[in-house]
Amino acid sequence: MKRKHIPAEEQYRNTMQKITPDVYPAILEACRDPRRTSLGDGLPLHTDKALPFRMRRRYRSAAAAILLLILGFSGGRYYLGGSAVVSLDVNPSISLEVNRLNRVTRVNALNEDGKAILGEMNLKGTDIDVAVNALIGAMVKAGYLSEMENSVLLSVQDEDGKSGKELQTELTQCIQQAFDGASIEGAVISQNLTASEAQYQELADRFQISEGKAALACQIASQNSAMTADDVAALSVNDINLLASSQGLELGDAQALGTASSKSYIGEEKAAELAFEFSGMDPADVRYLQVAMDYKSGIVTYEVEFYKDEYKYEYELDASDGDLLEWESEWKRADLLEAELQELEYEETISGISDEQALAIAADHAGVALEDILFSKITPSYEQETEFFDVEFVAGEYEYEYKINPSTGEILEYTHITKAYP
Questions:
Q1: Is 328 helix (H, G, I), strand (E, B) or coil?
Q2: Per-residue model confidence (pLDDT) at position 333
Q3: Which of 24, 118, 158, 360 has the fewest Cβ atoms nearer than 10 Å?
């Protein structure tokens, strides 16, 4: 039999009616009979004689208790109940539930590393920015965050998009300040999720990560046919950040601030140098050299590609130590090879400046220091037969948007008069 859902407020009203005696008829009868001075249980009616102090205090206490009960059930439930979920992923994954006063009401360690970070810390009742600062500090102290691995994923899940965005901005700034205090050039990926999806929850449960990291894993995997969401979910946030940056992958609605550290790996320049050593070729004799980070069979790799004569060469190296994992060469008919090269070189020409350079140009024009930028998003776009970088960023109380020519760096259009969060 299906149980009928009864709203909480109605349940409370019904309960109060049951436990509160119906004294109205007795009061009415007493008012009609001037000889009665009290109700059945000795509760006094109006009298010219003042009540004893002890009895007055007892009634005031009872009234206060009833008032607190009402406030605790209604207004208290509104202010002290859950309002948003804030999660931090590095390799430790931790989620914090916060109320509408931005106080922590619950803390959950999502994996064993998260439990180790929480340790004996009691963050319940603290302001969310204080809690986040403490967690980042603990991750730095434990070595999860350093100059070698410097990326944090911040996810705010709130049905109210505006308040969630404001909290996202505040906490991103808080994390950056924590990095500054530890003398680390940190990188923050932040996002605001307005709803929970079953596919994210299932992936999060299997890998003991937040729904935010699961959502980001799905976004990255959708752009790389060689990787699944499971592959991405198993990586650290720093590796995800490096892969997205190296392959030019979109982060969806997530925003990236800072540059992920590649100091744990040999680097793109060293990877190219080793590939030429393995091939025995002179870098001056090849055309179109491209190096990108990749992920194959559980290993982070560098993929080095270049052309020489009528062949295309590909080398796959272990990103950690530079070991050659595999290589191949592909012969192509001269005219087809030349057409392919011309297309690749044309793409390089129209992208004469990098994403970082486009942001630097926009920030310089706006008079904003790069370190003061809270969020940035750079998207290659095409509109009315014109290619441009769509550069968006937030600094202080303002939101900026620029359209920049990718070949020359010329500013085509800009707006920076709108307040980001009024």
A1: strand
A2: 80
A3: 24
Are 191 and 86 in contact, with CB atoms under 8 Å apart? no
CA distances to 81, 126, 230 from 103, rounded to whole Å, are 10, 5, 33
| Burial of residue 177 (number of CB atoms within 10 Å: 0-12, 13-18, 19+) | middle
- Runs of H (alpha helix) within 262-379: 268-279, 334-350, 355-366
275 burial via Cβ count (<10 Å: 0-12, 13-18, 19+): buried
Cβ 167 vs Cβ 86: under 8 Å = yes
Q: Distance between CA 83 and CA 392 in Å, rounded?
A: 28
- Quick one: the chain helix, strand, coil %, rounded to 5? 40, 25, 30
Point out which residues pair with 19 in neighbouring strands. Answer: none
Model pTM above 0.85: no
The residues near 172 (Cβ < 8 Å, ≥ 6 apart) are 154, 188, 190, 257, 374, 375
Could you tell me if 19 and 66 are in contact, meaning their C-beta atoms sit under 8 angstroms apart? no
Residues 121/104, Cβ–Cβ less than 8 Å: no
Q: Which two tokens stand for residue 205?
A: 């449960």
CB 143 within 8 A of CB 123: no
Cα gap 61→124, rounded to integer Å: 29
- pLDDT surpasses 60 at 1: no
Residue 29 neighbours by CB under 8 Å, 6+ apart: 36
CA distance linking residue 27 with residue 263, whole number of Å? 82
- Considering the chain, what is the average pLDDT of its residues? 81
In three-state secondary structure terms, 382 is strand
User: H or E element: which one contains 333?
Assistant: none
Give the whole-angstrom CA distance, residue 333 versus residue 310: 7
- The two tokens of residue 28 are 């009415």
DSSP structure string for 49-107: SPPPHHHHHHHHHHHHHHHHHHHHHTHHHHHHS--EEEEEESSSEEEEEE-TTSBEEEE
Note the residue count of the chain.
Answer: 422
Above 50 in pLDDT, residue 310?
A: yes
Residue type, 82: G
What is the bridge-based pairing of β-strands 151-157 and 84-89?
Answer: antiparallel
Instruction: Flag whether pLDDT at 150 surpasses 50.
Output: yes
225 residue type, one letter: S
Confidence of residue 25 (pLDDT cuts 50, 70, 90): low
